[in-house]
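Quick one: structure for this chain?
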Amino acid sequence: MADVELLSVTRIWDEGPHNAFCDLVRHDDRWWCTFREGTDHGSGDGALRVIVSDDAESWESAALVELPGSDLRDPKLSVTPDDTLLLLAGERHKDEADAWINSTMTWLSADGTAWHGPFTVGDPSTWIWRVVWAEDVAWGVGYGCQEGRFVRLYRSRTGTRFEPIGPDMYTEGYPNETALVFCDCGPCLCLLRMDGEGATGKLGMAELPYTTWRWRDLGIKIGGPEMLRLPDDRYVACARLYDERVRTSLLWLDPDAATLTEFLELPSGGDTSYAGMVWHDDLLWVAYYSSHEAKTSIYLARVRFS
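Got it. Here's what it folds into:
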């Protein structure tokens, strides 16, 4: 689109064997990015790297969060109402039958270097994917990882204990990764990844108290969704697309029409996506990972909207 300009894309981290599944926030006037370091995409040795920058150009490691015997995956960062960093991630380990068991864990930090935790949150075998704060409450959607396929809404005031809200949001097929946006007037939007043969993404909407959801099909397959609302009230999403080729792209979401329209492909390919987005200084900042330059690495894009 003519009113969108990709200003820059910079590789900001590639020191791990496989660097992937990232998120991005602003805290204390600094940039914070987190991601998983492991041997490869599905290896059982994942640890959570947190890096920091004053200018989004020079980055250094602030912390490496590890848990012996566990694979930590898909970390997400948010800032609590008392100005503390909250780190959330999926955890998995092998049981005695050599099967993967999943849970969700959180950590808290005042400075991004020393992390207090982990706290096991949510329900067993359920992965809370991402946290969004609204009205001093943390909201997240967890999905069933073992028996049963569902997505379930959770909330917390501390980040160390999450309670389920209402009945399960969606129980057909294989729903999993999500992105939430809360509107000023109360409604909540949920962008939902669906897996399985022929499965395409869904858009959910609910009014307070967010216990009754209405779902519409988006008609395209998406992975690793993230979403936010721009100052002009347009909704922008970032996701992995699978049609002609795998790539990470920005898309317009039209909630009324229930459509996703690609408008900017980011330099990407192969193993890619799982972005974090921040609106800052009238620009959209997007942290994502990709393997289009051989090694799977973390990238930061700056996008300007007219």
